Amino acid sequence: MKNSYKLILLVSLVFITLSSCTNESVALSHFQLLKKIVEVYADGTTNTTLIAYEDNKIVTIDKVDKLLKFYYSGVLITKITELNKSNQHVNTLQYDYFNGQLTKITSSDNYVLNYIHNPDGSVAYEKLTKDSNTNDVKIYHGTLYFQNGNLIENDQFLDDTGSGFLSENKKNISYDSKNNALNNILGFNKLLDYSELISLNNPMSSVETSSVKNIGSDQVSSSINLYSSKYIYDSNNYPNEIVSQNILFGGNDIKHVKSQLFYD
User: Fold this and answer.
1) Among 18, 31, 149, 190, which one has the highest count of C-beta atoms within 10 angstroms of its own C-beta?
2) pTM of whole model > 0.70?
3) Residues 101, 118: Cα–Cα separation, whole Å
4) Looking at the DSSP assignment, which residues form a beta bridge with residue 154?
5) Would the pLDDT of 125 be above 90?
6) CB 229 within 8 Å of CB 252
7) Which helix (H) or strand (E) segment is 3 a member of?
8) CA-to-CA distance for 20 and 91, rounded, in angstroms?
């Protein structure tokens, strides 16, 4: 009876060990890093972006027009340099954190982004620059709203900087339930200036509404735009093709047809 008990215990331990190894293998097989993006345009031309890493720390994003270099302090990205390849201008961005949350971005191009994390999970922000007398001038301010790890709304107000106009822009975003291609980059999800790219899932559609008010006449004009994306996923539920006007790292273009994504 004692020997039978020992045998059952041994078999159970072996099963648990094998099960643990199998689960670990499955988890590891789902860890992948985006290495290349091919942007395809309606006229048949393409642009290629290459991404380099050290382990899961991002080192560079090499685009056709720009080279970005990333620097870490521990697990947080604390500096990014942006080289404009056409004119060789370099913008340096310093990232400051408190308790692991981004609080400030300081640019060598004479602007600062400040962030305040609210108890409800939303994040208030403002962009400031300096005038010729080194006084702070607020360019815009707004609030970011998150749900289930995704940026779902961005309300932004452009402040009056002497133009005579005030404007409000609102962006509402809906998502799929699949893996964002950038999920596994260490510290990337802290970079609030990268908008929905830091989200857990992939943006399926966005509705952008804007209104502009003439301060002198009180006249208001408004517009609304809808953008959508369609995805093809790999066996691990990461996107390997995105059909959209949106370019993965930067803006949108009506001539843009799709992004093809390649992993390690």
Assistant:
1) 190
2) yes
3) 11
4) 144, 171
5) yes
6) no
7) helix 2-29
8) 47
